[in-house]
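Table 4 source record.
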Amino acid sequence: MTAQHSTLSDQTTQSDKTTPSDKTTSSDKTTPSEMTVFKEFSFEAAHLLPNVPPGHKCRRLHGHSFRAQVHVRGPVEAASGWVIDFADIAQAFAPLHDQLDHHYLNEIEGLENPTSENLARWLWQRLESQLAGLCQIVVRETCTSGCVYEGEG
């Protein structure tokens, strides 16, 4: 160890001088901590993007193994120990999964131009009233391409 390193490690800041009674633990907080939880879903669907230039590969009919994450933020409830039951997220998503899985997205109302961005917004609009604390939708159409939507404003 160098002399400079030991000198730096021996320095103490004001925050290092607090005693255990000066520090609060998570159990001492008067307000519940908030966390974000998510559940991920997958579905297979075909689409084409009608608004891209002629000759663009996405203008041809093709399919994806889509993945969608639904994120919910809120306080961790003392009794349950969770923000929301994952089963509640799954129940809210189930009818949307039924509409999307093994379907042609362009034929679904509101998805006539089914980009990842429009799909994320479409999911949000249908889940927002069912999931208090909905804070983010992530849609991935490939392993390396996707969209994050956090609502309007």
